[in-house]
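Page header: ASSEMBLY MODEL / two components / 554 residues total.
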Amino acid sequence: MSIDLLAQKYRVDFPILEQKVNGYPLAYLDNAASTQHPTCVIDEIARYYKEDHANVHRGLHELSSRSTKLYEDARARIARFIGAKSQDSIIFTRGTTEGINLVAATWGTAHLGPGDVILITEMEHHANLIPWQILARRTGASLQYLPIQGDEGNIDWTLLERRLQGAPVRILSFTHISNALACVNPVSEICAIARRNGVVTLVDAAQSAGHAPIDVQEIGCDFLAFSGHKCCGPTGIGVLYGNSEILAEMEPYQFGGEMISSVTYETAEWKEGPHRFEAGTPHIAGAIGLATALSYLDDVDRSAIQATDHHLGQIAYQKLSNLPGIRILGPQSERAGLISFQLGRIHAHDLVAYANQFGIALRGGHHCTQPLMRKLGLQATARASFYFYNRESEIDRLIEVLRQSIRYFGN
Amino acid sequence: MELDELYQTIILDHSRRPRNFGELPAPALRGAGYNPSCGDEVVVFVARSPEGKIEQAKFVGQACAICMASTSLMTTRLKGKTAAEALSLKRVFVDFLTKDAPPPPDELGNLQALAGVKKFPQRLKCATLGWHALQSALSGLER
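Prediction written out in full:
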């Protein structure tokens, strides 16, 4: 398969990519931070605002009926996208971060106490780390980590079962794909081990939902969180999936309009289902835009996206490996479509500024994984992250610019 | 290219071979600056004479070329200054990077090589990190 097959067909759908930056064609290689939007998503959001907007679940008038239907249809579309049995398992959030915070604040507060263990990994994004730190502090539970192994960063998951049996672990929260290391964790196997040991699981799917087929039934997780803007959808909208038995007994996250069934001056009762967790007027256009984006990704074909991602990541790994003084994080094979690296003594910010001069958009920093960077003895790395609209030629341009940067800054 | 305005020769030189790199033992004053967006950290050490004049300034840290060069250049310009004079230089330097008014060139000297930062406002934090560490080291001494 030509690595550019999807780009040849679909790149035209992304108008933002057809521009020059500093006189060079834009090579957008920051997709792990945020992906771009196909025209159909931009158009659908504009159409919704031009034709159908009103508040949801409140008005009896025509526009409110339309927006309510679009919003709830979006929920159903998202349920299908991740293989959820019911749309009632789909809670709209602002993004992955809010989804994880919601679980920590509601399920966590109700179920954890002194002596209990929250288990996460050393490769987690701050969004899947700090909520648990705070929860541990509030409940007296302890936060423990599954260690990464060396620069390759893989976790020895064969040790998981013993770990779960050796301590009162209540929840295991882990990333599907590491945004810093490009590791792909064996999510179904992990959840199976957790399930047979009675441990609740949360999968951080921020880097995977738009990049690979996701089926929560097959994965067998209790919770799964992702962000719209990392899968061709808008910012400010995300999804928390929760299995229906757990959601049914969970307390609300925030309180206000939309989430109640009855209120008196003294007390209030909550709605059933996902609305209980959606206080206030939601990001209606965001939900509709996200549903459109997910339909688009299914048209492109997520298995093909996954294969392209993997190809681009592997080719980038091979080509970057030949640069003098380079240190690449993550495994040598089975990589996701991103690569984070330190080039000699050149600081990531200098490298990113240099690449930008030639129209290449990279990310430089700690990628919201400061403890991981510290463990690896790094402060910051540069990162190139790919999506199906990227071409192999953009990797070649990156390599050339990195070679030039060595001459420019000295190695 | 435009980037050459940011990475002038003197900047690249000071970033590759930072001057006054290293620590000073107590009772030298010590101040740290931390940039949470990139994890860069520099620690500045200041030794003063009994009369309160700076005799030596050194720094350690790992940071980008702009931050290393700015901090390195800073340490070469502090000798003989009181705390108040050093902090006044900091204000002149920050104004130079953030305001349009022409700088007093005598005071800034080779620090003017950082003028390129004006066109890259996202790098302002890099250029001023060492200076914030200096301010922290001298806190309470400005009178």
